[in-house]
Amino acid sequence: MSSFEEAETEETVTCLHLTFYHPGQEEKMMFRCLNFCRREQVRADDTAKFGRDSSVCRYSLMDTRVSRVQFSLQFYRKLHTSEYGFEIKNLSKKTKLTVNQTELGYLNKIDLPWKCIICFGDYQILAEIQEGEAMDYFETHLHLAEAPVLQEKCLPSLQPIPEKDISPSFFLSQEKSPTEMDENDL
Asked: Vertex 128, ends 63 and 15: CA angle to 5°?
């Protein structure tokens, strides 16, 4: 047998990609303690904490407006499956945390969606989970965004869009409130 055949089976690792943005990042350098563009291993039983206190937090943000411990991410295995996920918990008593428009108060926690935007204060973090199989650890890969990760969304037009083969005049003749209609009336 060759050494290739005897080698351990390589398992993929769950990786949490985090892209950070703050409008004052160039002047204030609040991300200077983060290791960007390099994957970092985190033990599965460790809680990844983000905040101002470098003695407690694995990921330090150098900003006095950030709580000593702002939030945490906990890696876990979903019950009765082989899937893994992350739970995010707000650890700030003063600042609410939003995850895709879901507002978390102090000690509130939710499962982190596979792709979401985490916001607190002027901070925006795009989080994307790359699934893996390893049980003992996960990886983080931090990135720095030059533009906001959260853009203002344009509201869709409230004007109905006609389906194919239906005359636009049909919609113009409709009342403002919806009415029931028998299919034979068309």
From this structure: 95
Taking only the tens place, the pLDDT of each residue in 106-141 is 999 999 999 999 999 999 999 999 998 888 999 999
Q: Which domains, from first to last, does the chain contain?
A: 23-149 (2.60.200.20)
- Backbone angles phi and psi of 3, in degrees to 5: -65, -25
**Over 32-67, what HEC string results?**
CCCCECCEEEEECCCEEEEECCCCCCCEECCCCCCC
pTM: 0.74
Query: What's residue 71's pLDDT?
Result: 98
∠ CA 95-34-85, rounded to 5° = 65
Helix intervals (H) in the chain: 3-6, 25-28, 168-172
Sign, CA dihedral 170-174-180-185, equals negative
Confidence tier at 7 by pLDDT (50, 70, 90): low
**Scanning the structure block, which residue is given the tokens 């990921």?**
59
pLDDT in tens, 139-181: 999 999 999 997 643 334 344 445 555 454 544 544 455 555 5
Q: Any residues with CB less than 8 A from the CB of 115 and at least 6 apart, and which?
A: 126, 127, 128, 129
